[in-house]
User: What shape does this take?
Amino acid sequence: MKPLIRLLLLTLAWVAAGSSAQTAPRSLGPSAPVTEIDRVVAVVNTDVITFLEVEMRRRSVERQLRQRRIEAPPEEELRKQVLERLISDRALVQAARDAGLRVDDAQLDRVLARMAEDNRGTPAQMRAQLERDGVSFTKFREEVREEILISRLREREVDAKLNISEADIDAFLAEQRDAGAVAPEYDIVQILLRIPEGASAEQIERQRLRGEEIIRQLQRGGDFSRLSAALSDAPEAMSGGALGWRPAERLPQLFVEAVARLKPGELAPLLRSANGFHVLRLNGARAGTDIGLGGKPVLQTKARHILIRLAEGASQADVLRRLRDIRERVLAGSADFADMARQYSTDGSATRGGDLGWLYAGDTVPPFERAMDSLQPGDISEPVRTDFGFHLIQVLERRTDVASPERQRQAARLALRERRIEEQTQDWLRQVRDRTYVEYRER
Assistant: This one.
């Protein structure tokens, strides 16, 4: 669920910041010149992208970049970058529909309601804000629908097909034991120059030279975020190329080796992967969290929770009121936490009285883990919001112990999936784009 929510929040920020492009009126006089309203700029398989679509998205991106205090690239460069992103998105939506994936109106309404609540509002308030910003709510709905389709297609074509073998896990655990110390975390930004499948030597060399020129510009003081928005083929291009803080074991090994000896602010030499050339800059490094992969004792927390999801027709206020009432009753001694979990919780732990067993760092999503870590044994949290719903969390016990072999293998499998998922996603995106028929229709 997390990747989907991130995509939807990005869509909301991107679209809500924009304003509708205004079309010029057409004169109806017999001799007056006709003003062009729109034109096709690209054909993507059986679909088209129009000039006004590109302009609306370009203006939205410019506003988003300004909000993030990122200098926008020249108008024509940004227009080309936006067109390429629209082509990729259109190809992915077509592939999703060809695969039989659909998002009905009821599903879409639930996602929109969740987005509104995440922004501390109601669907009606979100719609009013969009319309005040000049954004068609109907168009916004369809863009969110497309984001959901793309996310589901990626889950099916990449996530579900990613295979981690037992030999992979053995090698990874041996690597962690040999390393000894806890792997650091890195904050990296990147610019990706994608190489098409079956590219000629000339095309590869052209991209290599572009990468070297970008590094020279950055060394002369060029703005990384601006160059990312103008030139990068990575999904995070419009966000300054930021990958965010990630533990080393959950980054591509190529990236880790490139930045391991860098100081914050330094650039890595140009990297080549199966997907293209990467320009990387290390923004920061810090000590990581020991999750027990090296066989050392680690902190573990025994916890239980009550999870209530937002059901259709229920409001956030109703859920919060119910959870606060449960919390007060348990604290007052008039109700038992486990009994309340069996009665009200909506996840698989309900039959166990909400028992989640012994949890390690990284086992739960960040909002849950932060709330859990702040509790003392016996404490019950206030309602905590995550991508899954609202939780009451109770910490029962803490200990420091070596993770079981089964636990180490489970954590290694997860770390390897996260390390490889980005590489596989980039490869899949490139393949979809390379299989797409695109005809540019510029003047």
